[in-house]
Amino acid sequence: MKKLKTELEYQHALHDLDVLMKKGEDHISDQEAEMIESLALAIQAFEKTYYPFPIPKTIPEMVELKRFQLKLTQAALADMLGLGKPKLSQILNGKREPDVPFLKAVYQKLGVDPGFLLDNA
């Protein structure tokens, strides 16, 4: 595995990986499959070093991570979860405890592990 040392190398690796992935699984050679794996590992190592993402420790942190991953506004997330915007805002800001309907929506709509929800509720 080649180690990425600069942002430019990282950007090139992302581009190369994207090009290979767009070919589709049925249209790549064994050598290209090995290249995909190598690029993915190098990108992952670079991101772990230069773009560390803290592991969520609370339900609001986990919900914010999911919101970020889905590129949703808080209003869009509230709609997705079937909640009022004020309620979601209060829960995310720690002014209100998560209730059962909120936890159920977070599990069903965002796919948050129920064990995490139970451990942190």
Automatic annotation (TrEMBL):
Transmembrane regions listed in the UniProt entry: none
Domain HTH cro/C1-type, chain residue ranges per copy: 69-117
Q: Which Pfam families match?
A: HTH_3 (PF01381)
Which InterPro entries does the UniProt entry name for this protein? Cro/C1-type_HTH, Lambda_DNA-bd_dom_sf
Entry-linked CDD domains: HTH_XRE (cd00093)
Per the record, the domain of life is Bacteria
**Name of this protein:** Helix-turn-helix transcriptional regulator
Q: Which organism is it from?
A: Dyadobacter chenhuakuii
